[in-house]
Amino acid sequence: MKDDHIQEMTKLLKSISHPIRLKILCLLQKKELTVGDIREEVKTTKANISQHLNILRNQNVITSRKDANFIYNKIEDERILSLIQTMQHLFCDSAENN
Fold it and tell me: Is the dihedral of CA 15, 50, 40, 63 positive or negative?
């Protein structure tokens, strides 16, 4: 693996490794959501959610679109969907079977 690839992967993994950001990504894999929708599920402040969304947006992990007064967020990178699904399979599915 080239050093450039390692650096890119390191930045990506750091950006998704926070528990709130990982939970946000788990929610977004199913459908696009507003900040309010995410806040309801994650149980934290709107400001906190916005900070985490900005980190994910800056790393091009998610994208957003505005529709009237709402901003909808979704996962931009298909590789992230695959990564989240793989982690769920490895960690969640196996834990439920034990």
Answer: negative
Residue 76: pLDDT band by 50, 70, 90 thresholds? Answer: confident
> Tokens 């980190």 map to which residue?
55
Q: d(Cα 52, Cα 69) in Å, to the nearest integer?
A: 20
Residue of 71, 49, 76, 56 whose CA lies nearest to 15: 56
- pTM equals 0.86
* 3-class secondary structure, 33: strand
Q: Decide if 35 contacts 71 (C-beta within 8 A).
A: yes
Phi/psi of residue 31, nearest 5 degrees: -165, 165
Give the Cα separation of 72 and 33 in Å (integer). 5
CATH topology of domain 19-97: Arc Repressor Mutant, subunit A (1.10.10)
